[in-house]
Amino acid sequence: MIFLDNLINGLSLGSIYAIIALGYTMVYGIAKMLNFAHGDVIMVGAYIAFCGLQYWGLPPVMAILVAMAVCTVLGVTIEGLAYRPLRQAASLAVLITAIGMSYLLQNLALMIWGANPKSFPRTFINSSILRVGELSISSATIITILANIVIMVALTLFTSKTKMGKAMRCVSEDRGAAELMGINVNRTISLTFAIGSALAAIAGVLLCSSYPILQPTTGSMPGIKAFTAAVFGGIGSIPGAMLGGVLLGVIEIFGKAYISTELGDAIVFAVLIVVLLVKPAGLLGKPVREKV
Amino acid sequence: MSDIRSGAPLLKVNDIHVYYGAIHAIKGISLEVYDNEIVTLIGANGAGKSTTLNTIAGLLHPRQGTVELNGANMNGVSASKMVSRGLSLCPEGRRIFQQMTVRENLEMGAYSRPVTEIDASLEDVFQRFPRLKEREKQIAGTLSGGEQQMLAMARALMSHPRLLMLDEPSMGLAPILVEQIFDIISELHEGGVTILLVEQNAQMALQVADRAYVMETGLITMQGPAEELLHNDAVQKAYLGS
Ligand SMILES: Nc1ncnc2c1ncn2[C@@H]1O[C@H](COP(=O)(O)OP(=O)(O)OP(=O)(O)O)[C@@H](O)[C@H]1O
Ligand SMILES: [Mg+2]
Predict the structure, then answer these.
(1) Which of A120, A227, B185, B233 lies 20 to 30 A from B196 at CA?
(2) Any idea what the Cα angle at residue B94 is, between residues B123 and B58, rounded to 5°?
(3) Is B47 in the pocket of ligand 1 (CB under 6 A)?
(4) Is A286 part of a structural domain of the chain?
(5) What is the residue with the minimal CA distance to atom 6 of ligand 1?
(6) Is the overall model pTM greater than 0.80, yes or no?
């Protein structure tokens, strides 16, 4: 029973990582950059949802939608102001800018909401506990896993069926060739940031529904873990982010439960190292290859 | 053959200078392409042929000089907008979308056009390239080199260009396939497509073209009717290996 309990918790935590990892992996695939501020967009999303619930008296669904809208605007603005001017610059310059943006967001949050941790309110997401035999499962767990599945299916359909989704795949494969098709690359990159950031808001709410302590650094650790998950699954690959995220969550929970609570995170990174040694492109990453 | 040159040129390149950082790759070249012509641009490796085509397509921007399409100045127009102005580049090295299917690649070629027109264009292209129809659902990266080149050309045609630019379409292909590619180029020309062709295979390019320009290290050193250049001593020595 404890095993099943752990497995379900792992799947739920992993689902949150997976949703965050999607943001990293899509932006990496399309803009070829690591957006280290992504974790902090999650934190902003959680704070906006918190304000909506606590101060503005919004119903939960509205609060989530407002958080998604704010994060979408935030993500697109960050891209337009900070990253777009560096499109031709060395990738190290972009990386440093992204790290700077991460600190900027954390400090702004510190200014606006203060350093004291806020306790995230209860909503329909985490209001009940289901009992199945001896198992007791929080509704947050179930909703998180379901949200993950819905997002995965929706994104897969989007990228395989819609014109815009296909344009995203083109830009990710060959930016120059995509331009020659008439695809507006800047707009495609903006769209990618918009989608990733809206998902970050959802991840923020789900994260705080399971671990209800909210502070300006809330997004950091999940952000880094999700980045790890994206690399683990094969950065640039959408199913890879999903698989990497879920596996990472399960490994983390099992590591903490059966090996050592303190070493849980170390175990996660150790597994990552082993995977990258065996499969440098990640679990589902495609090794780069060209036909002459 | 040069009689068909009448009125204003479809494409007019005016004394362009193109740089890669500090490298001065194109040092002031001018050329024209008139409606219904095949014009070829030949020259040794590194002469600046691809740079010229990429600049015309809007992927690179000249530091000086202008590119005019149909009399309108195209400086500052992005590559993605050039497509809807009737220009299409089939780039060096094919650059097809390896992870997409043949059909998806073709559909992306028609990205700038109304969805309702795509099916008719697909029919056209499949008629010209029956091999592609058989392989419609195949992942493009698994096609043979020759098939990939066909796909790249077909994809460039999907935008219904007035001016089609081909950058070394015969690169790396067996002689029989090179023949086939040049047959297709002739057919396209007969169908009314204007073509600017860059080729290593100067012999075949000069045979199919109306006019030609010869490039050397960023400059145009010779130009004239293709027929003439084909029999020019200097050209024969340098590019035709005789
Ligand atoms: N991205 C780049 N950065 C710097 N220099 C470049 C770049 N691309 C091309 N060059 C230089 O510009 C010059 C012209 O190159 P270009 O590719 O246009 O030649 P080309 O005539 O197409 O040659 P080839 O027949 O080999 O394709 C070369 O000296 C090349 O080294
Ligand atoms: Mg070239």
Answers:
(1) B233
(2) 95
(3) yes
(4) no
(5) B20
(6) yes
